[in-house]
Amino acid sequence: MSEHTTLTAYLNDHPKMTGVLFTMLLLLTQVGAASAANKIYYSGP
Asked: How does DSSP classify residue 19?
């Protein structure tokens, strides 16, 4: 529970980081959708 409180407090102290995290999430979901649409397969290590 303290991790959640710590993260919430951090984001309250640094409001720009909320925007950065949201933008990263948005870009990652777009890259995933584009990869799926282009049938790019990664077999792993």
From this structure: H
